[in-house]
Amino acid sequence: MKISPGVHFTKYGQSFVEEAIAALENPALSPEEVANSITSLCCKVVKATPPDDQSGREDDTPGLEGFLWDIWNAVVTIAEEDTSSHDRLAAILPAIEAKGKSGCEGWRIWGNEFDWANLPVYRPAVRECMNGPSPATEDQWIDYRDSSQTECRAALAGDPPTDSPASRAGADARRRWLNLNAFLAHLWALGVMDCTMYGISTMRMELEPYSLPPERRPPSEAYGIQEIEVECAAIWICIAGKRMFECREILGPKGNPDWNPHWGAAGSSGGTWEGVDGYHPERWALWKSIFEKIASQGGRQNMVDAAKAAVVAMEQVEGEATHKSEEDQAVQ
Description:
By secondary structure, the chain is mainly alpha-helical.
């Protein structure tokens, strides 16, 4: 798999970006070796960029932002393409974080002092990719929300792709979208990245609307594809279910009177949930009931299987929590 440098990068140091991406793709390199390569090549890009370059913000270190966008986009692309890369990428990110401020003293990004420990620009790069599947042929994007795009929508739902460009684009977008969600859930499960917002947002947008009768669902569900939505929600439960079960974070004004309205409300309800804007045991129970309903009602087998797997995963998490509680009580 060859990844081209991203559109954000400036005209300086292109070969260094390509070398850094090659290191990301090379399974023979250890995470520490990849981190060494990326950070040293970033220094080379900064040195190669003229001091008066205006491609970033006024007080940014020239050349830095473009390099970061390209590297993080490459990480996302690799994760989308190959689930077998997830463990390795999950080890590379902490190795980069461990570099801290070494070799980049005095650098600035987006008005702040630069520190690899913060993985600068990584979270915005991820956020740019979390807007849903993006099917595209060689020459155009496909708006799968258009009900006339039947071939693309069928492939997104899980039907085997046909030879048509639209169908192949739908199948590819489906694979990449599910893989990306699996990667982020994996990062959270391992404690590499806090993905509480993505977890709750997925359940709110992809699963909770199915707690409502069709006539009460949000307008956006008119063009939604239930199969891929349910599968996406199930992925989060199956991979990061323990984190979600234990989390009590509030991401909205209901339950947090000091919530800043400018932050939105990622934890708000997407269906019949009327409790806090965030994680809660009763909301977990609601999710489980929706999965159970979907599993029993039938439909495309891939969706039914995903719903059943989610229920099994939830029961396993619940059982482990009960067992631990009983052990703790016995010790007391």
